[in-house]
Amino acid sequence: MQPMTSFERVRAVLDGRVPDRVPVALHNYLMACRMVDADLCVVLRNGEALADAQLAAWREFGHDVIMHENGVHAEAEAMGCGVRYQSHIAPHVEHPIVTTLADIDRLRVPDPETTFPLNELLKATRILVGETAGRAFINGRADQGPVALALALCGPERFLTWVGEPESRPAVHRLLDICSRMNIALGEAQIRAGAHSSTIGLAGHSLISPATFDELELPRARAFCEAIQRHGASGWVHACGNETGMLPNLMGTKAACIELDPLTDPASCKRATQGCTSVLGMLHPVHVLRDKSVDDVRGHTREILRQLAPGGGFLVGPGCALPPDTPEANIHAVIECARTAGRYAADGSLPDVQ
Description:
Layout: H1 6-14, E1 25-26, H2 29-35, H3 40-43, H4 47-61, E2 65-68, H5 74-78, E3 82-84, E4 92-95, H6 101-104, H7 118-132, E5 137-140, H8 146-154, H9 156-163, H10 169-192, E6 197-202, H11 210-230, E7 234-239, H12 247-251, E8 257-260, H13 266-273, E9 278-283, H14 294-308, E10 314-318, H15 328-340
Parallel strand pairs: 1-2, 2-5, 6-7, 7-8, 8-9, 9-10
Antiparallel strand pairs: 3-4
């Protein structure tokens, strides 16, 4: 098989074709910032600095997919929440803006192009697209999905209480519709900025039941994916935790790619998704990629390739954001495995990991 470019390789996976080898996607914005010794209080608020960090990591590792974000707080901050930035850990919402049901009807979806910090995120996207010039696939992330954004806007306890109150359910749906419009506005802006795909993070089985997912999250996640696809790009979804029992629900979003944690059962995932959608994961970002030796990382990566890569439909990478102190040697080991053990034969098998 002829060697492909990174963009061609990822497009082959998303189109249901077998590429030359398994692509590597790195969810590494915190690690990238650490690699350039950046203060997160500064770099996550500045598009040029954010792009510089991602480009430094890409030039070091040569991964196929740049998964680009500035933390899962940006939409909530743009909508009015108070956010706490710290030098060496990810930002978080400190002051929710929705404290009563009446506050929901005062919420507005801001313009991502002109509203901080979304405008800085989009500035970084444009820089990344220009600097990589088609040599990388850019996943410009659209922050948290509807339920996760609602949790940030309200505070988890308040939102989940309202979810459990039948009389509050209409207001909950109005809130989630607003959150969905925010997701779509940012995702579409990412695509206009040149990104090739966009992702939202969904509430998974550890937080809500499949039935609640289908009521609250599924139609809005599907609307996001369909909106991105209308722009000629691909909509992806991310779900943390053990999503083995939620795979059919996640597939109902019609996402071109589902990003999954290592807690999801690989064999079940392969059976459920083969020929239907692609999967990104399931390397363990903490207990293996950060904490283990290079040899352990190689063994872990090869095992994930063995279970999930045959027949295509798979991008290998960490299931969630890499910790900032992840050893660079361990990421090089992942890249090496993908380039050697991840090579496909003509029949879609991986001869080096049988």
